[in-house]
Write a sequence for this structure.
């Protein structure tokens, strides 16, 4: 697409005033959605993961280190099966006809590289993809083994192109012969085979690119191919709209360490792989069924989990023909562990003393332990929030904020609620002269490809974050203080001050609890998809599936799954509580022994309060 096409579409979209007009004005996608990097039509086709499984799977009894077995349940492996993706794709194609080709480049690289994501060889709604959702060895294999292990830096890019890209899946795939002797491309890996090592029975080559975060940056920065970012004054910034910025957030943190030009954070360098592909703890550890080379201490697993425990749960239940029960269960366990042990800490850092009839002031701090914003990545419907409660001596609820109803999926939006999320929107959609995130009737909107402004972003920065004034990553309508005045680095925690009314007849002691939740998808987003993801080639879904009623649109199917699988139940990430000592000291949920131990501890240091952090 040329710059003038791009500008033309932008003009039409940005200056429309009402959603119907906006949708009507959206020009059909002109093709060439992703002009950079390797284009469809490979000399050497991608080999299906089950061919790799034969040697790189099923050889370890615990099934928790082999590349295939650790990868198979992950969202990376299931990016083309994800029912949430399919529903969102329909909305996108409806908003900007044809844009689905852009989506499929990252979500089905095999289909895209095969030329099956747009006409003439395929279709932007996925109807041209080969295979079934619940089978392997086809276009639904997601981000596959051979795909990643053929990604490379192109040292001699064609004129006008770059050796490496850091957004929009503009990957380079090695399509030549590995050596003069071979008939196929290299499989790039972390190992160099020297004297004493047994080399693989296939082409191989060591690749620094593969072990660096750069390879992930190719897809983990998603940028609008259509629209520019409009700032809070309604001015076009000239910056393509940043949809997801996980890689950039990481680059602006201490975890990128030495890679950073400004010299901060050289002490803590942790790439995407070190957190998302943790080392196998086995000794000995083998990378292949042949078990020739002992890789103890140098064997990254392909866990690739983030916060998503819900979609793997849905896939495990809905697609038994895939026979990946064990793999999905492993992914769910790793993701839960990641959320509960490596994501955040919650701490009640300050409070006044409770006096019946007066307000109690409590400050709760949430600290981000991840390598990017918390939460990061996909913006729509993803959120974390604090559930805070105050209970009296009887355990009766005196006050709460951020209450969630597990039966309905409703999160109570009380005056003090703290929800961590980014809210992209459409500038001046309702004639407000602002970044609008809902239609005129206050219904929330989720138009991924039409968004051109950020109404708010209060997600917690990572350690050493320098993006505080970068329009692509800065907090919006929210402030994080600098670590020290003028440092240019934002703190990696957020403090919430609650005013808790203590009734005049409250029975002391009072217990305050704060609990952080993570949710993959909100009720509002699922209901929006149910209502909106109904056109663009559907209701008769072209992708053969064994679940859901015939004739269901992809939005209705997702909503149906949401109802049947616990409404994307939030995961309890971390919590803290504080019991104020009153006339009688009562500590619920502690054993007698615990009481005695705590009692002696209290006596020893003369504490007025009692607290404990739970995971
Ligand atoms: C997201 C891209 C990606 C996908 C998909 C992927 N790998 Fe890897 N693989 C990597 C990276 C990165 C490393 C090196 C990690 C490190 O050492 O830090 C690696 C390492 C390996 C290794 C060396 C031993 C080890 O496990 O560290 C083998 C063998 C391997 N991969 C095979 C596979 C197979 C087989 C599949 C499919 C089942 C697969 N990979 C899928 C990125 C990928
Ligand atoms: C016939 C068995 C076999 C098959 C099939 C196989 N591999 Fe391998 N592969 C091996 C062996 C053996 C090693 C060496 C393992 C080691 O070094 O510990 C290896 C190593 C690798 C490495 C590491 C290379 C390096 O330099 O670090 C990668 C990457 C890899 N394989 C990818 C794949 C992919 C992708 C597939 C499927 C397209 C695949 N393999 C299929 C046997 C196989
Ligand atoms: C070809 C594009 C591509 C590349 C390269 C890529 N990813 Fe992904 N990744 C995706 C897509 C697409 C998804 C989301 C799939 C979904 O949820 O439907 C994803 C999902 C993930 C998730 C799971 C997120 C969650 O919500 O649980 C993690 C973690 C992740 N990727 C890490 C990595 C790491 C680490 C690398 C580099 C080694 C990498 N990715 C490289 C496309 C890519
Ligand atoms: C210091 C460890 C660490 C580093 C470094 C790190 N991550 Fe994460 N990441 C996490 C943790 C913990 C989570 C789970 C919490 C969450 O879901 O946000 C996570 C979540 C994610 C998710 C899911 C999105 C979400 O918020 O649910 C994606 C995608 C992801 N990471 C990709 C990356 C990529 C790409 C990189 C490198 C640019 C990276 N991560 C670097 C720890 C890390
Ligand atoms: C540059 C690569 C890229 C492109 C292009 C892309 N995505 Fe994604 N998508 C990702 C990555 C990476 C993730 C995972 C991020 C995370 O989990 O935080 C993701 C996650 C998602 C999710 C969330 C899935 C889940 O289970 O949580 C949906 C829905 C989605 N994408 C839809 C789309 C649609 C629709 C388009 C086209 C308009 C699109 N994506 C284009 C890379 C891409």
């Amino acid at each position: 697409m040329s710059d003038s096409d791009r500008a033309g579409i932008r003009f039409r979209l940005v200056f429309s005033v009402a959603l119907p007009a906006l949708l009507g004005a959206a020009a059909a996608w002109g093709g060439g959605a992703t002009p950079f990097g390797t284009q469809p039509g490979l000399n050497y086709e991608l080999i299906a993961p089950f061919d790799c499984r034969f040697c790189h799977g099923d050889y370890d009894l615990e099934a928790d280190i082999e590349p295939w077995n650790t990868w198979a349940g992950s969202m990376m492996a299931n990016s083309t099966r994800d029912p949430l993706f399919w529903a969102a794709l329909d909305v996108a194609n409806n908003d900007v006809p044809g844009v689905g080709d852009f989506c499929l480049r990252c979500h089905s690289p095999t289909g895209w590289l095969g030329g099956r994501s747009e006409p003439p060889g395929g279709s932007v709604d996925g109807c041209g993809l080969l295979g079934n959702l619940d089978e392997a060895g086809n276009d639904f294999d997601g981000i596959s083994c051979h795909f990643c292990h053929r990604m490379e830096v192109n040292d001699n890019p064609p004129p006008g192109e770059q050796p490496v890209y850091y957004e929009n899946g503009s990957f380079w795939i090695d399509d030549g012969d590995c050596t003069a002797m071979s008939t196929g491309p290299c499989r790039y890996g972390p190992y160099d085979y020297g004297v004493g090592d047994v080399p693989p029975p296939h082409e191989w080559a060591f690749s620094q690119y593969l072990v660096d975060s750069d390879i992930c940056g190719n897809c983990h920065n998603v940028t609008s191919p259509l629209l520019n970012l409009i700032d809070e004054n309604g001015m076009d910034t000239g910056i393509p709209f940043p949809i997801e910025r996980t890689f950039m957030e990481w680059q602006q943190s201490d975890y990128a360490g030495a890679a950073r030009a400004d010299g901060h954070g050289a002490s803590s360098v942790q790439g995407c792989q070190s957190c998302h592909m943790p080392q196998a703890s086995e000794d000995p550890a083998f990378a292949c069924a042949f078990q020739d080379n002992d890789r103890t201490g140098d064997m990254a697993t392909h866990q690739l989990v983030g916060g998503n425990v819900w979609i793997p749960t849905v896939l495990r239940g809905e697609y038994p023909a895939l026979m990946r029960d064990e793999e999905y269960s492993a992914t769910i366990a790793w993701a839960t562990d990641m959320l509960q042990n490596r994501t955040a800490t919650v701490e009640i850092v300050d409070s006044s003393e409770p006096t019946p009839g007066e307000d109690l002031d409590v400050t709760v701090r949430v600290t981000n332990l991840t390598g990017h914003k918390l939460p990061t990545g996909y913006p729509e419907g993803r959120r974390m929030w604090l559930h805070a409660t105050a209970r009296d001596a009887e355990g009766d609820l005196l006050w709460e904020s951020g209450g969630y109803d597990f039966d309905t999926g409703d999160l109570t939006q009380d005056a003090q609620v703290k929800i961590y999320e980014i809210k992209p929107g459409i500038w001046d959609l309702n004639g407000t002269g602002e970044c609008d995130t809902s239609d005129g009737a206050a219904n929330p909107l989720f138009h991924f490809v039409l968004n051109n402004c950020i109404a708010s972003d209060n997600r917690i920065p990572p350690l050493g974050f320098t993006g505080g004034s970068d329009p692509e990553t800065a907090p919006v309508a929210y402030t994080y203080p600098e670590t020290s005045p003028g440092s240019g680095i934002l703190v990696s925690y957020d403090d919430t001050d609650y005013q808790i009314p203590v009734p005049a007849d409250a029975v002391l002691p009072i217990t305050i609890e704060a609990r952080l939740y993570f949710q993959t998808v909100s009720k509002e987003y699922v209901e929006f998809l149910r209502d909106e993801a109904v056109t663009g080639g559907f209701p008769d879904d072209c992708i053969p599936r064994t679940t859901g009623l015939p004739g269901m649109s992809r939005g209705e199917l997702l909503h149906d799954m949401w109802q049947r699988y616990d409404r994307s139940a939030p995961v309890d990430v971390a919590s803290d509580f504080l019991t104020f000592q009153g006339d009688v000291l009562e500590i619920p949920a502690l054993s007698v022994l615990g009481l005695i131990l705590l009692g002696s501890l209290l006596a020893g240091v003369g504490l007025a309060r009692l607290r404990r952090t739970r995971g």
Remarks:
- The mean pLDDT is 88.
- The CA atoms of residues 247 and 338 lie 19 Å apart.
- The two ends are 50 Å apart (CA to CA).
- Residues 49, 52, 56, 67-68, 71, 76, 143-145, 148-149, 189-190, 210-211, 273, 277, 287, 299-300, 302 surround heme C (ligand 1) (CB under 6 Å).
